[in-house]
Amino acid sequence: MSKIILTGDRPTGRLHLGHYVGSLRRRVELQNSGVYDKIFIMIADAQALTDNADNPEKVRQNIIEVALDYLSVGIDPSQCTIFIQSQVPELCELAFYYMNLVTVSRLQRNPTVKTEIQMRNFEASIPVGFFTYPISQASDITAFRATTVPVGVDQAPMIEQTREIVHKFNTVYGETLVTPEMKLPDNAACLRLPGTDGKAKMSKSLGNCIYLSDSAEDVRKKIMSMYTDPNHIRVEDPGQIEGNTVFTYLDAFCQPDSFEKHWPEYPNLDALKEHYQRGGLGDVKVKKFLNAILQEALEPIRQRRKEFEKDIPGVYEILRKGSLCAREVAAATLADVRRAMKIDYFDDAELIAEHDGIHTAFLQGQQIFLCLLYHFFDGSFRFFFQELCYFNYNSSLSYRYLFCI
Ligand code: TRP
Hints:
3-stranded parallel beta sheet, two-stranded parallel ribbon, 19 helices, 5 strands, disordered C terminus, binds tryptophan
């Protein structure tokens, strides 16, 4: 079986470091691994509209931002299909059929939906589209027969729900859809990168993000004001590593050669942590080190972004071509789904022949009966009988019968 990746992001803002370590960096590695036959990367604008229905302009503006972020982290359009969700209407049709396979209570139990409902104060008035977006996400994944979905940990319940839908569909309608596997980041620090303020999640609404497109100076400022250990007041004080954002970021971004390049006094991260915990190591030094590592990772991304920004029509063209290609693939899956669900009436020659057979037999029976009736009475019936034969069925049998009497 082909190995296929599908993943994507909602275009509600520029992508940040949380996206980078949680998923983007992994996508590029998977792309370059050469293990996958096809890779689809989707800008989920239709999903973004499920909780931004009154703000289409925001979604519209961010499509190009997300596309630029993708290209600048190294997603290569010659190896991956980058496309826009709303330009593949087949996805809506799939979702419409999958809705029959999911209960309201199952959706209510989806932990991601639950938290998002709370975050958006939707409790009293959840838009139906938002409530059902896990089902639409199942269409995104299955339409491309994805075997692998590299995502951040908050998407785990979505993949679980997709697997359930696939199982149900295949049980009811026969083996048709592919069951996807989720691929989470290996490194625990990357599972959920905290915001610069130490809050659990990097999120635009909390204003605690470092964006991939931030300037070098903005990144430095954000790092310098980052949350550390509030009890580590003087340099001599022992410091705490747990919950210390700077160290979580180091866990996420340190490379094997980072110390050699930027801080050769320490052999590795463990030694640095040990010194911090012992006391005698100031936050500013550690932040400067983090800044050096982050700038090293972000600089090539910023440079590539600058190049792609010079040709915005070219980027839109990548999205247009990607969307056309994605549409073809999704249409093929939809055809399989329709066939499995027995709603492929016009493509099903057997169905037409079968019904043709039933009706021909029925009509012939009816006509023979009428002819017998005619014989039973007399010729006065003839006019009515002729009319009936002509109107009704134009069938050779009835005419043949007429001519011989
Ligand atoms: N829900 C994802 C997010 O919020 C975006 C998304 C939509 C997605 N469809 C998907 C991710 C399918 C992976 C697979 O970022």
